[in-house]
């Protein structure tokens, strides 16, 4: 009996019955890490699937949150001046709509006014390029050029069905875009007017012990998102003024350059997509100068674009933004790429603010920075003893 008792109790010399005894410590640690990584990856995949599937709801909601982060200081300032909050929200939203509508109207009118000039100069530049090809050592003939153009036309005609279907989908997306704009404006009204009440309700769903830490960490993240949106708008305006002013000054030296104002507006809008937007809009400005004026002015324009972006990246953003919204450029690039894969252009715009919020939120929970956040405005959180007493039956 003692022999069997020793084997069952794992005495010295007895053969172990637990399978973990045969697994090394390193393998157990690797297994513990592996299943946790799988769970986190599964949660992230589920989140991305939900965003992609219900993007027609998620994107307007996130846009409304960004609008609230941008306008909430002004709304609070108007309220401190004894303006009713409803009226303050209406003033700021109508002002934002007026600014966006004005920018779009100016861009469209300038494009219509400068399109003929751009077309004439593009045709002249094509003739110059064609003449250079004919006289170059490449031995390109007029028949070769016509054949290449014919091949391009045939490729375009062969894909006409795809282009037509894309046009139809664009028409459908216009309706979805307008619906999303209305949803975003509708949600912005409530987020600006009663955002604190909505947040109290969300925090109240959490367990008691998690409410204070979650609330304070989220408030730090919210402040980061607000700083990011406002600073990004300022930096975008500086980029637009710098590149537009550079094109305008260059036009006095090399001749008329069309579409200066629309390019500046596109630079402003494109700068809200970090890294990628600035590159694309800067390339657009360079291409317009190349087509309308020539090669060397385009080189100068490219230098202006690079100079403005370098000043923005290495001087303005560190001074204005500081370390509060500091995200590694590699994380920004991957966030923008991942956001564009999940939700297209809107995902690329919204990805970096989401990453900034998550970064600050997780760091605050991990290092305990939330304890230094003042407790004013927190939802009423009863103590654990009070909660247990309330749950006891009478």
UniProtKB/TrEMBL annotation:
Q: Example GO biological process term?
A: transmembrane transport
Cellular compartments per GO CC = plasma membrane
Name of the protein in its database record: Putative integral membrane protein
Stretches that traverse the bilayer: 58-75, 87-108, 174-193, 233-253, 259-280, 287-311, 331-362
Q: Give the InterPro entries listed for this entry.
A: AI-2E-like (IPR002549)
Question: How would you describe this protein's topology in the membrane?
Answer: Multi-pass membrane protein
Q: Which family does it belong to?
A: Belongs to the autoinducer-2 exporter (AI-2E) (TC 2.A.86) family.
Primary site of residence: membrane
What keywords tag this UniProt record? Answer: Cell membrane, Membrane, Transmembrane, Transmembrane helix, Transport
Question: Which portions of this protein are annotated as coiled-coil regions?
Answer: none
């Amino acid at each position: 009996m003692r022999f069997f008792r020793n084997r069952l109790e794992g005495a010295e010399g007895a053969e172990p019955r637990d399978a973990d005894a045969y697994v090394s410590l390193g393998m157990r640690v690797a297994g513990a890490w592996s299943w946790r990584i799988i769970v986190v990856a599964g949660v992230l995949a589920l989140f991305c699937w939900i965003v992609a599937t219900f993007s027609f709801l998620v994107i307007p909601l996130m846009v409304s949150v960004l609008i609230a982060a941008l306008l909430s200081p002004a709304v609070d300032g108007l309220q401190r001046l004894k303006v009713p909050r409803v009226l303050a929200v209406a003033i700021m939203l109508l002002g934002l709509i007026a600014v966006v509508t004005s920018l779009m109207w100016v861009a469209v009118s300038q494009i219509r006014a400068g399109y003929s000039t751009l077309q004439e100069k593009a045709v002249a530049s094509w003739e110059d390029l064609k003449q250079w090809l004919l006289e170059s050592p490449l031995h390109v003939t007029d028949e070769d050029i016509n054949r290449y153009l014919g091949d391009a036309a045939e490729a375009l005609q062969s894909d006409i069905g795809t282009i037509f279907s894309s046009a139809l989908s664009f028409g459908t997306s216009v309706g979805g875009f307008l619906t999303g704009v209305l949803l975003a404006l509708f949600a912005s009204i409530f987020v600006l007017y009663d955002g604190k009440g909505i947040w109290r309700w969300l925090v109240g769903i959490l367990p008691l012990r998690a409410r204070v830490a979650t609330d304070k960490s989220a408030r730090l993240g919210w402040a980061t998102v607000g700083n990011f949106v406002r600073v990004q708008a300022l930096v975008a305006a500086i980029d637009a003024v710098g590149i537009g002013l550079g094109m305008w000054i260059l036009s006095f030296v090399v001749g008329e350059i069309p579409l200066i104002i629309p390019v500046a507006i596109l630079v402003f809008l494109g700068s809200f997509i970090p890294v990628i937007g600035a590159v694309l809009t800067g390339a657009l400005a360079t291409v317009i100068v190349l087509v309308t004026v020539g090669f060397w002015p385009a080189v100068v324009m490219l230098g202006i674009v690079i100079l403005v972006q370098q000043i923005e990246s290495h001087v303005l953003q560190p001074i204005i933004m500081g370390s509060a919204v500091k995200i590694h450029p590699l994380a920004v690039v991957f966030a923008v790429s991942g956001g564009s894969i999940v939700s297209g252009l809107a995902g690329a715009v919204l990805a970096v603010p989401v990453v900034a919020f998550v970064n600050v939120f997780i760091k605050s929970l991990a290092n305990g920075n939330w304890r230094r956040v003042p407790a004013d405005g927190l939802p009423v959180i009863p103590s654990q003893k009070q909660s247990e007493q309330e749950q006891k039956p009478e």
